[in-house]
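User: I'm preparing a small set of examples for a lab meeting where we compare how different chains pack in three dimensions. I only have the primary sequence for this one, and I'd like the structure in token form so I can line it up with the others. Please keep the answer compact; I'll paste it straight into my notes.
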Amino acid sequence: MRVLKKWSNLPIRLKFFSVFLTIVLFAGSGMFVLNHQLLQVARDNDKIINHSVPNLTTQLQIKSTIMERINYVMLYVTTGDEELHKKFIEASERAKSIEAQLKKNALPHEREGIEQFIIHSEDWEGILSNNVIPVYQRNNPKDALDTLNSQAQPLAIELMNEAEELSQQKIHEISNDNKKVLNNAWSSVQAGYIVMG
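Assistant: Understood. Below is the structure token output for the 197-residue chain.
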């Protein structure tokens, strides 16, 4: 009651100024919340565009290089075409570069899985480089093919499955990030309606 009595005794200018100041403070705080929400949307979107999608692309390239390398070795061992051996070496160098990039760009929670994958990939490539190709080059194609079929191909399948699992995890992460971005964007829109309306 006392507050209402004081309010009614205030000059009209002070009343208008108080109402105007209240509206400005409310709008300012609403704009602050809206700005914060929009910045969060921008950060999340940046994470998706500049980190998650390129990592997914890199993971898919890894799977492709596994198939490429096993095919080059298989064709080399069956045809003896030295050009295929050179292509295998080039593909191996490219794969190492892609794996290094993948490891460098890995998020902390991804690092262990990616490091394990790289170790498995190096072991597999060691079989190709040390147990298949040299055996073939010593004029023993039967043993080279046996090693390729019994050791290298099953490991290649395991590696592709590991790469697929990493890719699926990244796809799931991107999906969750997209949902988060959309929720933040919707919250921003709602905050904007509240401020404006």
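A couple of notes for your slides: The helical segments are 2-9, 12-79, 82-104, 108-137, 141-196. The chain is about 95% helix and 0% strand.

User: Perfect, thanks.
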